Inverse folding.
């Protein structure tokens, strides 16, 4: 039976992934180096496993450094760089440092590409409806109603703003119909006077 | 865009064995190129006629020795910097430091006759420009070879590697040219060899990173 060194280079599955904080986690180092040596010799299975594990690490690496939409692109670019430059890996050194150097270079390339990419301003037509005037109006109205007596403010709120009839407002407030009419009339009068005195009310 | 799994499967399926990069092989290749270039130049009869007599002098030992040391170290620095985990920063600083020391050393090998001449006469700009251009031309093969090696490797600091490559190419070009140059004034050597090496370094620094993509 021929001796095949390749399986010996492929370590058994590790209990943990190669560390959350990068390839420096000790569990992954020897395993990755062995897989890369096997890959350099042309062992596709080892290479597939190595790239899958590297891909997971690269995802975490780029997620912390790039906008969400750029992560997959950066991971694939790095995997291709690893593939093209796999002959430069020296097995006397851990694969983690080699991979981290390539990933860092790809990160820099990706940042430069982001900087060169033209940015487009969002058009007002594309944006959702502007609620600014409504919000401002509500705020101003609330401050104006604070200037009135509570019964006047409530009558104006019910009839003029919420659309109730005088009779419905009368039932809700417990006042007579004429009292509601009076409160509305006097309240609007005070509001008008107040607005005329205050020039900066929008 | 292809999914990661599909990409990995594709890469693994079409995997071919690769020959591992060897710094020793690249160094030998570079040394062979330099030696071939020197042999060609000498074979064309360009060596200075009094080389046999001058080779033992302090001036010639300084000139050839310092250039040989600078060329050897800068080539090593350049080749080492092509590995993704290596930074060329310290190596480039070492080469600069040695270059300055070599220039300072020139002050101790000059003759009294040299120091008595006018500065412009000592520098001799017309001859000097020719020397600088010759160094640039002689550096081209080594720069091209280093550019190819850089493209095949994976330097993580391509700008630094390009700088180291420029220094290496410039010093090799200067070393080859030193066999032919008839000038004997250390000041002339410092000014014009320095100019030639600086020009090669600037060209390499500008050109090589553009031809490189990880």
């Amino acid at each position: 039976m021929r001796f095949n060194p390749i399986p010996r280079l492929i370590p058994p599955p590790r209990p943990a992934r190669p560390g959350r904080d990068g390839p420096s986690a000790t569990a992954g180092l020897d395993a990755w180096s062995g897989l890369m040596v096997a890959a350099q010799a042309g062992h596709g299975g080892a290479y597939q496993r190595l790239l899958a594990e590297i891909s997971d690490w690269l995802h975490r690496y780029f997620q912390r450094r790039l906008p969400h939409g750029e992560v997959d692109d950066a991971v694939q670019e790095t995997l291709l760089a690893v593939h093209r430059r796999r002959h430069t890996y020296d097995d006397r050194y851990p694969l983690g440092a080699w991979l981290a150097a390539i990933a860092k270079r790809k990160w820099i390339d990706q940042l430069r590409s982001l900087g060169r990419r033209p940015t487009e301003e969002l058009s007002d037509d594309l944006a959702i409806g502007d609620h600014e005037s409504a919000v401002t109006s509500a705020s101003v109205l609330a401050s104006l109603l604070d200037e009135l007596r509570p019964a006047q403010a409530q009558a104006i709120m019910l009839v003029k703003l919420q659309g109730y009839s005088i009779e419905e407002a009368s039932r809700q407030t417990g006042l007579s119909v004429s009292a509601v009419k009076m409160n509305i009339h006097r309240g609007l009068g005070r509001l008008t006077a107040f607005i005329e005195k205050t020039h900066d009310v929008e | 865009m292809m999914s990661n799994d599909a990409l990995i499967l594709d890469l693994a399926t079409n995997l071919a064995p690769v020959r591992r990069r060897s710094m020793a092989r690249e160094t030998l290749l570079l040394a062979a190129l330099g030696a071939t270039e020197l042999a060609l130049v000498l074979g064309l009869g360009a060596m200075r006629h009094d080389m046999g007599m001058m080779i033992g002098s302090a001036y010639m030992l300084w000139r050839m020795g310092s250039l040989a040391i600078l060329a050897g170290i800068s080539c090593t620095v350049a080749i080492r910097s092509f590995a993704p985990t290596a930074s060329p920063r310290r190596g480039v600083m070492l080469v600069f430091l040695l270059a300055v020391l070599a220039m300072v050393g020139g002050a101790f090998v000059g003759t009294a006759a040299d120091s008595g001449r006018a500065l412009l006469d000592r520098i001799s700009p017309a001859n000097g420009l020719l020397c600088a251009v010759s160094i640039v031309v002689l550096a081209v093969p080594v720069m091209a070879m280093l550019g190819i090696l850089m493209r095949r490797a994976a330097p993580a600091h391509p700008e630094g590697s390009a700088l180291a490559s420029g220094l290496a190419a410039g010093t090799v070009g200067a070393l080859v040219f030193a066999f032919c140059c008839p000038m004997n004034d250390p000041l002339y050597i410092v000014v014009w060899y320095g100019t030639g090496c600086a020009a090669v370094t600037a060209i390499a620094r500008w050109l090589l990173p553009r031809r490189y993509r990880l």
Q: What stands out?
A: Chain B has a mean pLDDT of 92. The two ends of chain B are 20 Å apart (CA to CA).
